[in-house]
Amino acid sequence: MAGLVQYILVRGDLAKTWPLGALVAQACHAATAVIYQFKDDENVIQYTSDIDNMHKCILEIKTEEQLMNLSKKLADNGIDHKLWIEQPENCPTCLAVKPYPKEDIKQYFKKYNLLK
């Protein structure tokens, strides 16, 4: 599993009004959904073959607009991910990227900071 990483980006603006547990749940939903959605992908199979050593990076994205723009950029570049839209509010809250070799995708995430 050397070098595989799963990036998860959570909207920081929601931290001002949402409980911490609710934000954590959003990230968990997105991470679980993308792993299931791409369960037959070779990277996912390799990533989940050693569950005690998975590498995730949880980053903050400031706003819904930035989240939607990143999702489009990832899609336009063929980067598999799941944009999580909380229901019934229909509120985009976060996205999770399928595990990839870090070197292949770090360029999309280097401007974001760790979620605090």
What does this structure look like?
The chain has 116 residues and is an alpha+beta fold. It contains four helices and five strands. Strands 1, 2, 3, 4 and 5 form a five-stranded mixed β-sheet that branches. A hairpin with a 4-residue loop joins strand 3 (81-86) and strand 4 (91-97).
The SS-based structural class is alpha+beta
Q: What is the H/E order?
A: EHHEHEEEH
**Radius of gyration from the CA trace?**
13 Å
Strand content: 25-35%
DSSP, total strands: 5
Sheet with the most strands?
5 strands, mixed
Distance linking N and C termini: 27 Å
Helix content: 25-40%
Oligomer: single chain
List unreliable stretches of 5+ residues.
Answer: none
Mean pLDDT: 96
The global form is: globular
The total count of helices amounts to 4
Layout of helices and strands:
Elements (H helix, E strand, L loop, with lengths): L3 E8 L8 H18 L4 H7 L7 E6 L2 H13 L4 E6 L4 E7 L2 E2 H4 L11
